[in-house]
Amino acid sequence: MMMPYILLQTIVVPVIASLFILLTKRKIGKRAGWIPGITLLYTTALICIAGISVYQGTIISEEYVWGPYVTFGLLADGLSIPVALIINIICAALAFYSIHYVEHRIAVIYGEEDERTKLSYYNTFFWLYLLFPAAFIGICFATNLIVIYLFMELMVIPLYFIMSFFGYVERFRVAVMCFLWGIVGGTFVLFGAVLVYSQIGTFAISELHTLAGNPMTFWIALLILLGVSTKLAIFPLHVWMPWVHAEHPTCIAGLLAVYANIGAYVIVRVLILPLYNDLKVFSIPIMIMALITIVYGALLTLAQTDVKRLCACSTIGQISYSVLGLGALTIWSIEGGMFYFLSHILGKAILFSTAGIVVYVTGIRDMREMGGLIHKMPIAATLWIIAAIILTGVPISSGFTGKWILFTGVFGAYPGSAGLAIASLGIFSTILTAAYTFWAAYRIFFKGPLKPELANNNKIKDPPLTMSIPLLILAVISFIMAVYPKPFMDLFHSVIGLL
Questions:
Q1: Is residue 1 one of the residues assigned to a domain?
Q2: Range of the structural domain that residue 467 is part of
Q3: Contact 374, 341 (CB under 8 A)
């Protein structure tokens, strides 16, 4: 028998934990740092339980009616469950990673403040943090366009305040930039949702198929694609990404990668599945913009010397692999795009968090001032190499598996010269990915002898276990996905295969 309210719990429990930290922060002190991680381990267990039932063929649907006008529905199927599971695991891992990182960040920014003020900032971070997984999982399970929009906008709130309180360079200006771009993207989605209601009288995703062949469907799809493309940082809507992704506190870098990538899920759920034939007109434009973004993002990343900005710029190109797969509109390309989405957010959480470890320990962001750190930080060096392997798509990595499936689908759609051109660009961009990830590893950890000012600093060492173990767990999950992708692909195929 299925646990009652199992999907609702995955959203509500983090919100309750957030309120608990907010209301009791003076009493619980720094113990607040452990609450998000423990809470998210519980919700991860709930998603696993639901996932087992879904894998066995059960679709879990929950509907809640509040008053005469408000209906809130949740759906767990082969598309939403794997996405929700990996996202929640990343959120849990980074919650534990944040315990020491946030304390260090507060010491850097607010070191002159009294202990009570610093404790207030510490607890503020963690109650804001829990709003992320609530919003992410809400988007995954929502059955209503307006609910998806509301959860997308909910993410903008913690992003703004966490950036303002704990960010790096020009953190207040970048927080405003993040807020405005988030609102703009969400507004396009809202306009698309309102247009849907004007045509069919409902926001229910299950009814979107009735728009098939409607002359207004083109404009609905265009509005939603524009809104989601803003979140996905598709060229030329990418300009916010290098600033926002580079200057926020590194402990939420993996969450911001999810924030950007989850637009791929929205495209599949809201547009591709119900309106497949109507979306074909957008296929080639989506693929062209994705290819441009992949190559541009890689070249932009190669030009960086700041370790955080390198990771930020790499997100631009990496996201667009998934978008390329969705644009090809074949079953394999869509499933491969979704699989690569999960691989990317795992790899990016490891890469960016490792960059955060380097900055946390050394206080340096310029890679030209590093070198030889493997002698003092072998675990950090290992984590960076693992992330580089995942993002590059080296065989036996989840990135390789995702790209293989994705490009198989793309070539199936375009087997001639067009497919050859796409293959060439894909291989070229993969080489560029290898160049900027492994070259950065060389500059940070291997190049030359360790500088005297670093060699003589006893504080430079591998981070506490609460920072490194969660990242190693993400690496193990990525490896399991690489060598045994069947459960994820079976789940995706149970929904996407119906096309």
A1: no
A2: 6-496
A3: no
